[in-house]
Amino acid sequence: MAGKKSQSLTYPRKAVEYTQRLLATIVNLIKVIQIIEVFIKSIGWPKKTRDMWKYIKEAMFSKAR
């Protein structure tokens, strides 16, 4: 019985840890995107750069999901 009890407690803990890591990854991803956007805006946004950045940003978010 003790084994079953510890297993049932372990699973929710692992799920919470996974969710916390996932949220931290998303927050870090958003920070990196903001830094890159500030840099690109500071040097100007040529149309090709805007288009390419939009593609890259969408790919990063879809990969994070």
Explain how this protein is built:
This protein has 65 residues and is mainly alpha-helical. It has one domain (2-64). The chain has helices at residues 2-43, 47-64. Helix 1 (2-43) runs antiparallel to helix 2. It is elongated and about 50 Å long. The mean pLDDT is 80.
Condensed summary:
This protein is an all-alpha fold and 65 residues long.
Content of β-strand: under 5%
Element order: H for helix, E for strand: HH
What ranges have pLDDT less than 50 throughout 5 or more consecutive residues?
none
Shape: elongated
Mean pLDDT: 80
**Cα distance spanning the termini:** 37 Å
**Total beta strand runs:** 0
Alpha carbon gyration radius: 19 Å
Query: Can you tell me the number of structural domains?
Result: 1
The number of helical segments is: 2
Helix content: over 70%
Main pleated sheet: none
Q: What structural category do the secondary elements indicate?
A: mainly alpha
